Write the structure tokens for this entry.
Amino acid sequence: MRKKLLAALLAFCLAITSTTFTAAPAEAATETSQSSSDEDLSYGDFHVEAKKLKENDSQLKSKNGKVGASSQSSESYWGQFSGSYYYNQLDTDEKALYNKLKNLAYSYLNGTVSATSSVFSDSSSSYVTESVTQSGVDIDEALNVATIFLYENPQFYFIDSSTLPYTESYSGYWWFDSSSSWTLSFKIYSVYANGSARQSYTNQFKSAVDSYISGASAYSSDLAKETYFHDQLAADVSYNQAAADNQQIEETSESQSAASAFLMKNTVCAGFTKAFSLLLNSAGIENVGVTSNTHAWNEVKINGVWYVCDVTWDQNSWPTHDYFNISESELRSMDKMVEFNTSGWWSMAQTGNEWVHTPLSFYSTIRPACVTPHTSDVDAIDLTAAQKTGNTSATSDTSSSDTDTGNSNVTPSDSSSDTSADDTATNKNPEPKQIESEKPVKPNYFKVKKFRKGALQLTIKTKSNVDAYYVRYRVKGTSKWKSVIVEVNGKSLTFTIAGLKSGKTYQLIAYSVDSDTNRSNPTKVRTIKA
């Protein structure tokens, strides 16, 4: 990874002023030609801040690299959460810097050292660690290494997604001279700055992580464990829309850290990516995190093959598997085009349109390629069946479905009289991945009743001029959803889903669909026996 200029990364992580660099706000992209932003337009990465230190802040300079020796006891537990795919591609000097960053982070994870509050030349202040440096590595390469380190070591939950480079000389409009001497330090969230208080949070973080690991112990295969981690995170953790909309500052949301997922249960794509990576690492499942200008996701190696897995876009109280173990081409077929605006080096500010899942150029030569299409061999495991039988092979629902258009003039009674379905199960934060261009409303009536053995009759009525609805259904307790698009053209419609398993209890939910096939506004879940 020699001399990979971090132009794209710096372009969205650095905002220039006449006196200092400051972090660009996360989650700042907007959907092209649409009125609302994709709520997952997270940078999914740390922000690089270049602050010119005041003269009395010399304590942040490097201490000859002799900072924070990690303890073996800490490594024995926390080391299981580290990845190494990117690390293994570094050269000798870059690996030396990476290891110094790890030792520094471990000194805060395993010890009671408190972070130092420092004031910068722009009068801002942050809690920061000591600094490290490394000969043979220029500032651009150092920032690459810091990026890799933070995504491969998500257990360091207390580190703000900011790396603070300091150089001895500046020139022009606060450009870094790549030949200048430099040091790197980490920014610590203020709530974790005090060493004694941080110990308590570390115990809480460990307890939360261990509960996921314990749950996965019921399964033996990598695929089953991946499914379990994916589904638990997608169901347990809500999407932090306020952070995505820049209505909550990073210091409060901790949204770029795994802490927001495990401790706060409210995060954005970076938090989902790091939390998922941490759990996969604990199970020995090789994976990496990848970021674009607006998003972050994982790539996972299952059965010797690399696949894309995006927990954020599958996030739902009833987790979906649309983005589970798919290829890059399959991902692109479901991707969204967005407009992004980034600020960076004086000459590298960017504005443009791109797919959400367009990796930063930084990753072009170091991330694994995901070219193998999804097959049933890597379907999400039916966890209920796997836990009961001990069989963790992939399962799929082979039942067929069709739609029969009924009388479009049917005018059903009010939905409050619908006693054929159980409304007690509801979705929380359903389908956060979808970008709503027209914001169609949910149907004001969604009735399900048994039509005959193995067939259910659905009636949908809406007051809005919605073209179609997207209906999903599954056998209750399984993870495999099927779906059908129902064209309604703003009218009520009665139709039938046939080919179901007679006697099985099904769950059904309907979403309105806009002209770009984005779905939103789910109904309550209906539960009924076929």
User: Anything to note?
Assistant: The chain has 13 helices and 27 strands. Residues 162 and 501 are 52 Å apart (CA to CA). Confidence is low (pLDDT under 50) at residues 1-73, 169-175, 344-348, 394-438.
